[in-house]
Amino acid sequence: MRTVLITGASRGIGAACAREFAEAGYQIAIHYHRSREQAEALCAELTENGCEAMTVQADVSDSAQVAAMVSAVGERFGFIDTLVNNAGIAMQKLFTDTTDDDWRRMMGTDLDGVFYCTRAVVPAMIREHRGVIVNIASMWGEVGASCEVAYSAAKAGVIGLTKALAKELGLSGIRVNAVSPGVVMTDMMKDFSDEDVAALKEETPLNTLGTPEDIAKAVVFLSSDNARYITGQVLGVNGGMII
Ligand code: NAP
Question: Are the C-beta atoms of 90 and 148 separated by less than 8 Å?
Fold first, then answer.
């Protein structure tokens, strides 16, 4: 049975990924940072449905916590076939108001976190000559967003990491791809007004906003053998907003 470790699986897109991977027959390591209750409730739900699941806690911006997380998953499930780097934060702020702390917090979570988690799982993947990494980027990492410079820069970094690492690890039988969501209605969107959300919907060619499940289905596809010849790619799941 395959094992997937999904970071930030307590809520939103990560939780949808956990449910989708469970449907596909994986063992699931549900990572959370602060939302212990939600992670445990999700774990109980998946377990009741016959899935092998566990929860694991870490701040992804701390490399020692990430290393401990990956070894805890390894102890319970053995080899990690797929890593989904989903944990992330967003921030809407004028560039000129962005403090050193704002910048470090953003890079620490959204970019360093991807580096730490990936570096912790890759040695075993190289030994096994197989493995899949799926990074959750953002369309703003592709084209940039006003008042989201730090977020856009971190996600552009995730895209660069994805492409470079795919080249480095291809010969080791490991695929590395990114899913780049458009606007998806999760807690991350809670600071947007109804008018802003309506305007974003209007701007989307498919005239609808994304759901966490839309993203999760793309992640599970990229993790599957159906995507065996796909690596180094950034799959936009954005209703046509960025083409
Ligand atoms: P969300 O509902 O706000 O969930 C964020 C998740 O990240 C939570 O599980 C949270 O864990 C975890 N997290 C935050 N800081 C962390 C840290 N320091 N260490 C470990 N985990 C941490 O967000 P979402 O909308 O599902 O977003 C998931 C991913 O999709 C993010 O990378 C985001 O940038 C990307 N994305 C989202 C959208 C969108 O419109 N929603 C669009 C493009 C890209 P706890 O709750 O346990 O603390």
Answer: yes
